Amino acid sequence: MSDLEKFRQLGISEQTLKALAKKGFEEPSPIQAITIPLLLSGEKDIMGQAQTGTGKTAAFGIPIIEKLHHGKKNVQAIILAPTRELAIQIAEEMNSLKGEKVLEIVPIYGGQSIDMQLSRLQRGVDIVVGTPGRVLDMIHRGCLILDKVTFAVLDEADEMLNMGFIEDIEEILSKTGPDKRMLMFSATMPHQIIAIAEKFMREYEVVTVKKQQLTTALTDQIYFEVRREDKLEALTRIIDIEDDFYALVFCRTKNDVDEITEKLVYRGYAAEALHGDISQAQRIKVIDRFKRKKFNILIATDVAARGIDINNLTHVINFSIPQEAESYIHRIGRTGRAGKTGTAITFVTPSEYRKLTFIQKLTNTEIRRERLPTPKDIIANKKIKFKEAITNLMVTEKHLDYLSLAGELLKDAEPEAVLAAMLKFTFKEDLMAVSYSDLGSHSGGGTVIGGNASSGGYSSGGGGSRNAVDVKGKTRLFVARGKQDGYNPRKIADMIWDAAKVKGYKVENIQCFDSFTFVTVPVSEAEIIMEAFRRRANGRQSLVEIAKEDKPAVKKSDKAAAPAAVEPEKKKKKKKAKFLAVE
Questions:
Q1: Maximum distance among all alpha carbons in the chain?
Q2: pTM, rounded to two decimals
């Protein structure tokens, strides 16, 4: 049976099947297999009890797209969702599911310009996806008329109930006509939800998806117990030890997504972010680039990752443990697809262990505890990969353009010394064990995965070879170099390493502006860095100083070195005080 034959048997048109093929769909999920034919051929309303990650959007979205036709002068479908992120996601998913079919699908929600949304509604819309508050606002303004809708959908009805939207929902539904088809999806069925069904639905059918249908046998599930502050280091070790890492990394909040992405990019990893604040156009670009493997690490929130169908992920990383067991299942279901095995990794702090146990119990699955790779494992793996790459280059290419330079370098020095210097130039401190932070006692324990670094497995042996930094506070430093001088965060960290030999992981929150940069370092390292740059300055103004509350300590004669650090402070002295304060 062909990939989409099961969808075709549900009664879906070839036009929609083409859109499903483009999105990478293979076969319908249980909720889709039951709901789609009921909506396409039946007349009853539907109440679906299904958790996040079951494919609900396509379950109601595909039949609605099939049934509606553009050109009518009224809104034909209203879909209510509890949050702006989910409303945006549903609208984007339905826009991709419609393929080449002409339908105007618009999300409306709080937080976006109401004038912009009013303008779109006035131009004519077929499907409105919105949050209850903003939808009701539009109804009260007389800009959204729902008396002729063909479909009314409540998605995650229990969440809307928990958020206090029940009265808004009832008022919205009271504005719809009696001949609509109504669909309601909810993970749980409290009596208030049943009451809505009894009040507003006609004869309805109940569709239920059992939790065990959501598990995957092709995903190896493991966890690492790490301190919250060590999660980024743990993630980079996993990336470094794997030969072919292609992963989705889940965070709980948008701020977490941005922060982790920024730190990974600074460390040289190919990572991009995806969350609710990213525009639809940018979201499409990011997902397309990820599918084409233009980068290999996508950091996302749960809501933002919905609708992404990628079958060859090697890993799913729960950087933040999910709040619900259903979210866990939905996340890890992204890997272990199309007959390929995948690995789901969860970072757990000691205080979160009970939550992990609860997830294991509800999902009826084993999540094994394992040990993180040690610095020794990472360094050994990097050496092996480098030697393999060099060997392959020597076999496949002659490198004639570089032979004369190689001869010049070898003329007055020992070959080993030249090669060692080139390795230092290439790797900086990456092949030195002291460059890796200590992950403490919580990263140990459990079974050993794999045998050695070259196999890409995780090894035994807990943290690094040194103690964690123990300081009482951190300091913000001002560096009189920025983007206009050709610097980026990586080059700033390299400059500090070259001058003061302070490790890159100790240099945090590097904010690089046009003509100056701020960095945050432990207090003990701050003195080392400033002393090193004072020696380099040899009596002139140092490039690095403590960032003052009023303005960076730059002399009048040195304004050219950092004009952006001085001039804005004159205008916004008070506003910048907190930003520049010593931590």
A1: 91
A2: 0.48
